[in-house]
Amino acid sequence: MRALFRISSLFFVVVFASLGVSAQPETPAKAMPFANGETLTYEGKISRLAISISIADVVFTADQIPDSTNYRIRAKATSKGTLLKLFRFSFLQDYESIVDLGSQRVIKTTKHDVQKERIRDSIADFDYTQKRVNYTETDPNDANRPPRRIASKIDAPMYDLVTGIYSIRTMPLSVGKSFDISISDSGLVYEVPVRVTKRERQKTIFGKVWCWRIEPAVFGNGRLIEQKGSMIIWLMDDDRKIPVRSQINTTYGKVDVRLKSATK
What we know:
Radius of gyration: 18 Å
Helix content: under 10%
Number of helices: 3
Low-confidence stretches: 1-5, 16-30
Order of helices and strands: HEEEHEEEEEHEEEEEE
Strand content: over 45%
């Protein structure tokens, strides 16, 4: 079961963590490639020994907070299909991030994480004046359990697992381009090298379209995912740069994440 949850977590991370970018558009508040209320829905499947099973759905939504320049970006991953029927294993990961469009950086991350009976709630506050992220995790099933607290040094701009995906969509891409990204997860900070390796066609819900192939180095010792593996993400080569597909290869199998619907 632990191995299955690890694959499920990797599915969630492949959509979020690898897409954060230290990008600073010239006019960030006016050049957003996504509309207020945009919703993107993905399905994740794992393949091993010529067998493919559906494991989760992930839904992203982005809404501007009224009377504010801030956006609320939410991502929700829910287990499904064979993972539930055969293995009786369920999970829910619900992220909500507040991002400042003017500075293109995350302000606050709230997370609700469920793994069968295990539940964890957490909040990460990003203090750019003190250059620290303060992370607090609690167990709602055990009121007597002391909160888990972590504080780490940060530099601007900084992203979490959700806001990064929206930042890269504001950035011009080209084959051969490389950059490092700063991602904060659970109070820790990771530097992730990213390369744009190809421009190739992918079959999507929009038809067969040209995409940028991006390869982030998230696997390995001291990295976001401390195990062997590789990751690829495809973004549409147009003004929207919608992520249409992600793929990771691990010792547990291959996880394929595809966009199945998009609104606005």
